[in-house]
Each structure stands twice: as C-alpha cells, then as structure tokens.
Write a structure and sequence with these properties.
With 349 residues, this protein is of the alpha+beta class. The chain has ten helices and nine strands. Strands 3, 4, 5, 6 and 7 form a five-stranded antiparallel sheet that branches. It has a two-stranded antiparallel sheet with strand order 1-8. 17% of the residues are buried.
Length: 349
C-alpha cells in the first residue's frame, strides 16, 4: 500500500517545463502568431520589506528545531507527535501485496495525517516492543488503489522504537555551539540582515511573477504552432514515463497513483494545456525581446553559466550546455534581461 502520495503532476510539470526550455524546438517568427498587449509601465503590488520581530522569532524557532536532540523513549507508551519506527504487514482477504508491508518504517510525527484512518491512531498507547493487530478499512474512494476502496484491511504491527525531540534553550551557549556567534544579540543582528536580503529577493521574484502574468494574460496567440505544442507534450510524457520506470510501474498506473488525475487522457489534456501555456509564454517573450532589441554577449552568457551550473549539479559549461542546450540557456538569459527591463518600468501601487 502506498501510504503517502509523494508527487503531484502539477509540481512535476513545473520542473519539466524548465528542462524543456529551448530543447530542439523549431525557430519561428513570433510576430506571425502573437499579438502583444501592454507590457511597459504596468502597475504592480507594493512589497513590504520590513523585518519584523515575528520574522526573527520564526528563524530562531527553526534554528532551534534544526538542532534538536533525538531521544529514545523507554518509559512510556507512544503519544501523538512522537516519532516511531514500526514493522507492518497489511492483508486484504488474507492476501498481502506490494506496498502493504514495511520494515523499520518511520513515522516522523504520529497522528500528523497522510495515512488511512486509524493507522497512526492505533499505534498510540502502545510501548516499544509491542506487537498488535489493527483492523481498519480503506476509504472509498481510494485513488491510490481503486481495487482496495472500501475494503477491510488487517495490519499486523510491531512498534520497534519511540523517539522525542529535545529542543535546546535559546541562549548564548546554544548560538555559540550551533551557529558560531558569541551572543544571541550578535546572532539576531545577522538574522535581520539575512531576512532583509531574503525579502528583497522575494520582492523581486514576486513582482516579476505578477508582472509577467499580466503581460501574458493581455497577449493573444493567433495560432499555436502545433508542432511545438506536440513536441512539449511528448517531452512531458517521456518525462513521466521515466518516473514510472523508476517506480517500476506502468505509465497508466503511475498517472493514476501519483497524480490528481484518474485517467491518462485527463492527464494528457492537462499536459497539452500546459504545453500551450509554455508556447504562449515563449512567443510573448521572443516578441518583446525582438521589439526591445535585447541582446546577449559572450561575457553575459559565460557569467550566467558559471553562476547557475553548480546549482544544477554541473561542473563545466560544456556539461551544462549538454544538458540544457545553448539555445535553452540563452532563452533563460533573455527572459532574465527582459524582466529586469520591464520591472524597471513598472509602477508600484
């Protein structure tokens, strides 16, 4: 039994679109297909850059949690919020199947959700070493496996260990030991600086996203280049097929199990919609780049590669280009330069 869904198609599509940028798509004259709306001097939302006490306290809480100490519990039964390690074997009508068993399986926070009703709750009250049986029922509908929907299921359980996390006190000793600062005051000054930098970056990204959304929405596509749309859809299908192979599943089963779609055709309709959306954005970008006479020189290209290739796990420009193509990388640079220009003309309100 797949106890948790680990993917959603929309999230994968976002990653896939990045991978597909500029990858072998035919060159077109964007003016033939796109009618631009207004794209300069647009209004965008103001963004508050104030660093608040709440911002600082949230960072401190995260810092303390990151440095919490894991302690094994031996003197009481499992409670909500504990971390537990279990062995389990589920059976329906006396038969078990792949995904319904687990060994040394960790639930990081008991009763936090993500499992069928009664599974986590049935562990509460048991001590490490206890073996017990849970008689439960799969929900109906149960999209992870429609054949199991509504059926009774029996889990043979063994609770192997229970843990809690001890969060350190916030004081000079803690920040010295775990963060390298002499005092909490010194640490908090650095936090404020870091938060201010994050907010400035978030402002830039947020306003660019808002601005780009308005530009794309105001533009019209006269006719979608079907070859490009089909190519993106095929790329996305191949992308998910690779995941299906990784999970040792058929493509159709992968779509049904790990996405929000119940059929392949439904998923592929969504893929086509996303492909058209990406083609539209690409055409709009190319038309603006053309109108504004935005260019890229070799120094800008190398600077962008050197700045980003490490983030994607590549050590050389050649390897980076082999993965994303020069055309794909250049498209990213054009987009970055275009958005810097358009943001400089936008009006905050």
């Amino acid at each position: 039994m797949n106890m948790k869904k680990t993917m959603r198609l929309a999230a994968l599509l976002s990653a896939a679109v990045l991978l597909f940028a500029g990858c072998g798509k035919k060159e077109e004259n964007p003016s033939d297909n796109v009618e631009l709306g207004e794209y300069k001097g647009l209004t965008i939302s103001k963004y508050d850059l104030t660093v608040t006490d709440e911002d600082v306290n949230a960072k401190i809480a995260s810092f303390l949690q990151d440095n919490a100490k894991k302690n094994m519990v031996t003197d009481r039964a499992a409670e909500e919020g504990d971390e537990v390690v279990i062995d389990f074997e589920g059976s329906v009508d006396g038969e078990t199947s792949e995904g319904m068993t687990g060994t040394d399986y960790t639930i990081e926070s008991l009763c936090s959700g993500g499992y069928i009703q009664g599974f986590e709750e049935g562990i509460v009250g048991h001590k490490a070493g206890d073996e017990f049986v849970l008689d439960l029922q799969f929900p109906d509908p149960y999209r992870q496996n429609e054949e199991l929907a509504g059926k009774p299921v029996t889990f043979k359980m063994k609770l192997k260990s229970i843990y809690t996390w001890e969060v350190p006190e916030y004081n000079d000793e803690t920040v010295s030991a775990y963060a390298g600062y002499n005092t909490t005051q010194e640490y908090e000054e650095q936090l404020k600086s870091d938060i201010a930098e994050e907010k400035a970056q978030n402002k830039d990204n947020s306003q660019k996203n808002e601005l780009w959304g308005k530009i794309v929405e105001a533009s019209q596509i006269r006719e979608y280049p079907q070859e490009d749309v089909d190519s993106y859809v095929e790329d996305m299908k191949n992308y998910y097929q690779q995941y299906a192979t990784l999970y040792q599943m058929e493509y159709e089963d992968f779509i049904k199990t790990y996405t929000n779609f119940s059929t392949v055709s439904e998923a592929e309709e969504y893929m086509e919609s996303e492909a058209k959306n990406y083609v539209k954005q690409s055409l709009v970008m190319k038309e603006i780049v053309k109108r504004e006479n935005i260019t890229i020189n070799d120094d800008e290209y190398l600077s962008y590669c050197n700045k980003n290739m490490g983030l994607y796990g590549y050590e050389t420009v050649e390897d980076f280009e082999a993965a994303y193509t020069r055309a794909g990388i250049e498209e990213s640079i054009y987009f970055e330069k275009m958005m810097d220009l358009l943001l400089s003309t936008a009006i905050e309100e």
